[in-house]
Design brief:
The complex is a heterodimer.
Chain A lengths: L9 E6 L5 H8 L6 E8 L3 E2 L2 E10 L1 H18 L6 E6 L1 E3 L4 E9 L2 H18 L2 E7 L3 E3 L13
Parallel strand pairs in A: 1-5
Antiparallel strand pairs in A: 2-7, 3-4, 4-6, 4-8, 5-7, 8-9
Helix pairs in contact in A: 2-3
Chain B lengths: L3 H11 L11 E8 L1 H7 L3 E7 L1 E3 H11 L11 E4 L2 E3 L5 E3 L5 E5 L6
Parallel strand pairs in B: 1-7
Antiparallel strand pairs in B: 1-2, 3-6, 4-5, 4-7
The chains are: A alpha+beta, B alpha+beta.
Chain lengths: 155, 110
């Protein structure tokens, strides 16, 4: 079979509309791949006993896209058999239980895509300039990922 | 034919530095504020005149001069200069007119 017709692609999107698992999985499907692995990050309704009303995300959009491209490049170096990678992140208001991020990776066999998806979300949380604000009933809080190496670790 | 001094004057002007700056060599950079830093500064972006050559800590001090409320987050932020992360400290920067400098509070994507 002629693999040059299915050139590996990265699909990166930051958008304010609701994310679609169907759309993201279909982006990475390939006739050469037996596996599509997915991660969906959804918004929780509570944090340390406080009720979360909603979440709001903002991004340094141009740099976030560049950093996600770097993650994709690293994935392809570590797992050369990975075919397509899709990372969709929502910005603006995200209601509880809706997806804030969906990552999909395809590969011929399942081990690589499963590992690559985990690497993508872990590295995204450490390096991509996106911020989440949790809105509670009486206050709000800018969250800090524990993966962020410059965050103030003592709370 | 221009003298060497007049040629240097014209070159500096062409690079976006005001003539007659006496060698202090400042330039205009775009400063972007995000998340908590945007709330403290009260804005999302502005143009600031800063020295072209300085450490990242000195750059922070220039920005705090313009927005003193930012001082409270000094221990938590890094910069992104031309979209590369830079810690606040001794790292020496050479800025170009129009460079993007972003204040990056702790991130929480995903």
């Amino acid at each position: 079979m002629d693999e040059s017709e299915d050139v590996p692609k990265d699909f990166i999107k930051l958008k304010s509309e609701k994310l679609s698992v169907d759309e993201v999985s279909e982006l990475v499907v390939s006739p050469y791949c037996g596996a599509v692995s997915l991660f969906i990050g959804t918004t929780r309704n509570n944090f340390e006993g406080k009720k979360v009303i909603r979440l709001e995300y903002e991004a340094y959009t141009s740099m976030a896209e560049t950093e996600i491209k770097k993650i994709c490049r690293d994935v392809r170096q570590k797992w050369p058999s990975v075919k397509h990678i899709a990372v969709h992140h929502r910005l603006g208001v995200v209601p509880i239980t809706e997806a804030s991020v969906i990552i999909a990776v395809s590969s011929p066999h399942r081990a690589e895509s499963l590992e690559a998806v985990m690497y993508c979300i872990n590295t995204l949380k450490a390096s991509v300039p996106i911020w989440k604000k949790e809105i509670y009933e009486d206050e709000y809080s800018w969250k800090e990922n524990k993966e962020c190496f410059w965050a103030n670790s003592e709370k | 034919r221009l003298s060497a001094g007049r040629r240097r004057h014209r070159e500096r002007a062409a690079q976006g530095c005001p003539p007659g700056d006496g060698g202090s060599m400042r330039c205009q950079v775009s400063v972007l504020y995000f998340a908590r830093s945007a709330e403290l500064a009260g804005l999302r972006c502005e143009t600031l005149s800063v020295p072209r050559r300085l450490t990242s800590l000195q750059l922070w001090e220039e920005i705090v001069k313009a927005h003193p409320r930012l001082a409270v987050i000094q221990d938590q932020v890094v910069f992104a200069v031309r979209q590369e992360y830079v810690l606040l400290g001794d790292q020496f920067l050479v800025l170009q007119p129009g460079d993007e400098v972003a204040i990056i509070p702790p991130i929480s994507g995903g």
